[in-house]
Amino acid sequence: MPETAPHTTALDITGWTCPAPLRDRPRVVMGHGGGGALSAELVQHLFAPAFGGEVLAQLGDSAAVTLGGVRLAFSTDSYVVRPLFFPGGGIGDLAVNGTVNDLAMSGARAAYLSCGFILEEGVEMSVVARVAEALGAAARAAGVEVATGDTKVVEAGHGDGVYINTAGIGLIPAGVDLRPQRVVPGDVVIVSGEIGLHGVAILSVRDGLEFGVDIESDCAALGGLVQAMLAVTPDLHVLRDPTRGGLAASLNEIAAASGTGVVIQEGRVPVPAAVGNACAILGLDPLYVANEGKLVAFVPREHADAVLDAMRAHPLGRHAAVIGEAVADHPGMVVARTGLGGTRVVDLPIGEQLPRIC
Amino acid sequence: MPETAPHTTALDITGWTCPAPLRDRPRVVMGHGGGGALSAELVQHLFAPAFGGEVLAQLGDSAAVTLGGVRLAFSTDSYVVRPLFFPGGGIGDLAVNGTVNDLAMSGARAAYLSCGFILEEGVEMSVVARVAEALGAAARAAGVEVATGDTKVVEAGHGDGVYINTAGIGLIPAGVDLRPQRVVPGDVVIVSGEIGLHGVAILSVRDGLEFGVDIESDCAALGGLVQAMLAVTPDLHVLRDPTRGGLAASLNEIAAASGTGVVIQEGRVPVPAAVGNACAILGLDPLYVANEGKLVAFVPREHADAVLDAMRAHPLGRHAAVIGEAVADHPGMVVARTGLGGTRVVDLPIGEQLPRIC
């Protein structure tokens, strides 16, 4: 065989100049996957310019695309949660509900999912089976079909049991146009229920950190709740599910993309006592803790009462509450009015309080 | 906080009975990701029953689904190739072309991709950037838009630099119905070019195994070639891209699903000398080595000449060749006529010759 040097034909990775916002970190850190400012930098300064395209630049939970004259929502998430099973769920149902919820935030009812497994050599087949069964059960419960899949196996020490990617597609109903650019001052901010349950449930079973707490993850599919809200009016402005980075990250993303300010009344945000206690002990702020079965909605003021009533009539919205409003002041910034009458800025988190919660 | 035991609410993974075909291997082995018999067992006996659904049961390279009255192809693959860059490509372009090709095997032109990165803590940002740039360039070349994405980060020692999942959607043209069940005895088997290039290119740069070989991966997007073939007639019967498990795996999948036999003339299969030499030295059979820019087509006999001409007129089909036919004999089995007039059975591979080639 000829003695060529095959590496010379590989991509040349010398001479690349790191974009300024990423320059302080020449290597990937955990926070780049945290859904906060580091994640946003990576997407805005590295992935989006490299990929190009107008749809990605929308940077929503899911993309709205048109294909064959039909408006579709299209979304993906990889799931690397540890441990694989936790109070209230596991990676299998999380992989369904997370992607179903991203589609629901476009107003779409999820129709089909793809499912890619990256398995680590040596993981017990019974673990894979229980993950798959939970995934299938969650898909049936959400009314979505797993249409296509893929399995890869990596050597022991190059994975962590089971990683899952799901992508999903669903139809966006006519007249529904959910995006932060539609938010205007005066919009009412509604959260669908108690926050912080998923993150604290995961944390309670983390290696080396186990603590007893009487709560479970809120992991659930929100498609039905969103349909109930849209039945009141298709004219909701924007929906987000506050996963990584919690409610604080979602509100900041909406404020930044809409160019409005957001004010929340801290005392109106539903925080279960167990979450509040756990956060106090661990030094966490519940606003930054992940949820997997909640949404935050920006609703035109004239529809707010009716939408809230519809949410409270749905099992997944029983504890829905108005927590604030969009304002013309401090565009792009989120502030919280505290119980004592003070005000604090609710920043986009830098990295993440809890790695690998989804 | 109450002293409950949170683990009791997690999924119970005791008492699970392994389906018989999987029973010999209570843990996942590398071969479960190899695209051969072990992969098929995992899908048929574990994933498919757990997920349910009729579409997944088609088990093609991509699923054909109907949404809003429109026929779509939907497919996903995760990419865990090592090394990340290899002669002729890298994980970024592979992640585009692999999924574009899966869609093309349904006759669909890929329209939108999702892209999920699982990054390992500590990987150089420049590596991520070059992967992303190659991914973006490949998407533009293939005429597909990256519409939505996700990034997760796992701790060092739980990944391998960069893993990527892509899912894709595209329109299936009217009148096109590509699936193995349409194969009938007499169909002509055409391969689009020289086989084995991708697998040997990867192997040539594997840690501890480097050898000089004057070939590059054939990694390429086949959408244009497929459109050229469909322009001759929409009545092609089935297309597959022979990736993991090589041409042997694709032919076996088609034979099994169609219930016909397949006969190939071994001497007509285009094997480049460099691939043949490398395989001889390493004890590999080129029929089992992965490709990333080739397809195999089962074409009605009356259209075979015209389809072959159209393929040869396309840059990615210049070396297209008729290699065999579907037969009524030995249903479900693939046999090769050797140069000496003998016959050998071409089995579905059990696991894989080369782990992590895509």
Automatic annotation (TrEMBL), chains A, B:
Write down the PANTHER family for this protein, in alphabetical order.
CARBAMOYL DEHYDRATASE HYPE, HYDROGENASE ISOENZYMES FORMATION PROTEIN HYPE
State the organism named in the record.
Answer: Streptomyces subrutilus
InterPro entries, per the entry: HypE, PurM-like_C_dom, PurM-like_C_sf, PurM-like_N, PurM-like_N_sf
**GO annotations under biological process?**
protein maturation
Family annotation (Pfam families): AIRS, AIRS_C
Q: Which family does it belong to?
A: Belongs to the HypE family.
Residues of the PurM-like C-terminal domain: 185-330
Q: Where is the PurM-like N-terminal domain?
A: 60-172
Name listed for the protein in its UniProt record = Hydrogenase expression/formation protein HypE
